[in-house]
Amino acid sequence: MFTIIDNGRASPVDERAGTDLAKRAEAAGRPVAIDPVERVAYLGVTASDRARALSSLEAPDFTLPDLDGRLHSLSQHRGRKVLLVAYASW
Amino acid sequence: MITVALDRSDDDARPWIETAKPTHPSLIDTRHVLADLYNIVNVPTILWIDEVGRMVRPNDVAFGTDTFKHITGLEAARHLAALRAWVRGEAPALPEARVRTLQSLPTEADQQARAEFGLGEWLSANGRREAAVRHFTRAGELAPHDFTIRRGTMPMRGVDPMGPEFRAMLGEWVKAGNPYYRPLPE
Q1: Which of A35, A53, B32, B103 is the most buried (most CB within 10 A)?
Q2: Is the domain of B140 the same as that of B97?
Q3: Interface membership of A9 toward B (CB under 8 Å)
């Protein structure tokens, strides 16, 4: 058994399919992190995709939960000015 | 206002949110989705987004109070005044060309580091701390300027993010001529 994490979602696949998916993502230029011992691969997003999105100046949309598990998206705030603050307890 | 905690768990962020009792959305981002989308490498990071969803002030460092002014040298009042003027329509935000100039875009190493972080975070959440540490360490080597990784993973590595290991890391970073915070020039 192998786990592929793509787009933030973890899916179990058989080992051969997992290593194939990771190899294909790597061949497509995506950043891939693999742990062969734990049999998990994380498929990331390319720098050029991220740079293109940021250069457009359109704020990338996201959906994240609050403490009660309610989901909020940036796009729900269209029509209002938004101060977006990233912070942490550390 | 939307606040996003780049924290290990709800429980790490909870005391701060419960004390502040915010009326705005106060979100938790254990997987650093926001850091990946916006190329955020430290906290606090702020951005201004206008009514049509355009970034009119790119990643900047600003504090809401002067609690850490003695360490950071950054005064809260300057950003708060500029923010108020923009919100009230008394002053424009930055021109588009200037936003582009001031933006920092991710490199391939930054994105590889984020993939290593993502793998480490998943392993950590699944109780595989030893394996997680390998990937967090690799991520920090790939993106030494990314403190959402180097400091932000300390709780998942069993390291005190305010303790001696952090102070040693910060000391070495600053001694090599690198700033810990990179506020915009204006």
Answers
A1: B32
A2: no
A3: no
Q: Are residues B10 and B98 in the same domain?
A: yes
Q: Alpha-carbon distance B129 to B156, whole Å?
A: 7
Per-residue model confidence as pLDDT tens digits over A48-85:
999 999 999 999 999 999 999 999 999 999 999 999 99
Q: Which residues of B29-63 are buried (b: 16+ CB within 10 A; e: fewer)?
A: bbbbbbbbbbbbbbbbbbbbbbeebebbbbbbbbb
Helices (H) and strands (E) in chain B, counts: 9, 4
What secondary structure does DSSP assign to B117-149, as a single string?
HHHHHHHHHTT-HHHHHHHHHHHHHH-TT-HHH
Residue ending a domain, among B84, B102, B120, is B102
Provide the residue range defining the domain that includes B33. Answer: 3-102
Answer whether residue B28 is part of any domain.
Answer: yes
- Chain B touched by A54 (CB under 8 Å): yes
Q: Is residue B135 part of a domain?
A: yes
Q: Is A27 on the interface with B (CB under 8 A)?
A: no
Same-domain status, B93 and B155? no
> Would residue B7 count as lying in a domain?
yes
Does B123 contact A74 at a Cβ distance shorter than 8 Å? no
Give the domain-ending residue among B102, B130, B163.
B102
> What tens digit of pLDDT does each residue of B44-60 get?
999 999 999 999 999 99
Quick check: A15 contacting B, CB < 8 Å?
A: no
Residue at B181 is within a domain: no
Q: Give the one of A42, A51, A54 whose C-beta lies nearest to B119's C-beta.
A: A42
Span B85-140, pLDDT tens digits:
999 999 999 999 999 999 999 999 999 999 999 999 999 999 999 999 999 999 99
